[in-house]
Structures are given as C-alpha cells and as structure tokens.
Design goal:
By secondary structure, the chain is mainly beta. The chain contains one helix and eleven strands. It has one helix at residues 121-132, and strands at residues 19-23, 32-35, 38-47, 57-64, 70-76, 80-84, 87-96, 101-105, 111-116, 135-144, 147-158. The longest helix has 12 residues, at 121-132. Residues 1-23 are annotated as: Disordered.
Length: 160
C-alpha cells in the first residue's frame, strides 16, 4: 500500500443521468423514449411476432417533445431503450424582453432568465397577448436531457 494521495479530475457533470434504461417491450403509448439522441413522446407502438432469428421487434413512432418532428425506431423487444427524465415545472411570468427571452419567477423567489419564447405560434400569441393585457400568467416548462422549453400556459387572473 502506498501513502500517496491520488487526485482524479472528472470531466462529467455531477448528478443524475439524463436517461435511464427500460426494456423496449414495456414502453407504451404516451410514454417517453430517446430516438436518434432526441427526447420523444411515443404516439404509436406496434410489436411484431418472434421471427426466424428469435426476437420480437417493437416499432415506435414518436414525436420530439421540443421541435415536434416525427421519428421512428425499431428495437428488439427484449433490448433496453433509453428513456429521458422529463420534468414539467410551472413558473410565473414576470417579463418578456425585446430579444425574445422571458423572465420567470421560481418557487424560491429567484428569477430564471435563460429561456426563450416558444416557437409554437399559437402559444407565442397567447403568451404575448395575455402579457400585454396585464394578466397573471403561469407558464409550464418542459425539461429533458439538458434542454428546456415553454410548452404550456395558464391564466391565473388579472394582476391586482
């Protein structure tokens, strides 16, 4: 045994993984799945019968939760797939800046200023018109695999 101290430099970030493994045969419609490195919501699952080479296969049709693109993947049902940790958090909208960023109030009273307005035109219109009318708005922010985006809006009444 040596008395030397060893220093290790870690290049990875501390904390939880962005995904977790789940057997393909157990993933259902409305579940989440990583296809081509993107977090997706499953809209259709079909399973083929066991073939000559032994594996039943799952055919997934899913929609990217951030950009709305449709993606497909075929995985043997006994193999593991990556499933993203998807979180949804509500924040109160404080301000909209000229360059398209929003200022949000977190639960602990801090502000979060690193999110852009959504690219979805209908949601964008609802947020802008509600903010201009002086309403108290709460936005839902979906986060997965290091990305965040505003995905919903609640009107909690006029400002006092």
């Amino acid at each position: 045994m040596s008395d030397e101290e060893h220093q290790f430099e870690s290049k990875a970030d501390a904390g939880a993984s962005k995904t977790y493994p789940q057997q393909a045969g157990t993933i259902r419609k409305n579940g989440h799945l990583v296809i081509k490195g993107r977090p997706c919501k499953v809209v259709e699952v079909s399973t083929s019968k066991t073939g000559k080479h032994g594996h039943a296969k799952c055919h997934f049709v899913a929609i990217d939760i951030f950009n709305g693109k449709k993606l497909e993947d075929i995985v043997p049902s006994s193999h593991n797939c990556d499933v993203p940790h998807v979180n949804r958090t509500d924040y109160q909208l404080i301000d909209i800046s000229e360059d398209g960023f929003v200022s949000l109030l977190t639960e602990n009273g801090n502000t979060k200023d690193d999110l852009r307005l959504p690219t979805d035109d209908t949601l964008l219109g609802q947020i802008k018109s509600g903010f201009e009318e002086g309403k108290d708005l709460v936005v839902s922010v979906m986060s997965a695999m290091g990305e965040e985006q505003i995905c919903g809006l609640k009107d909690i009444g006029p400002k006092n």
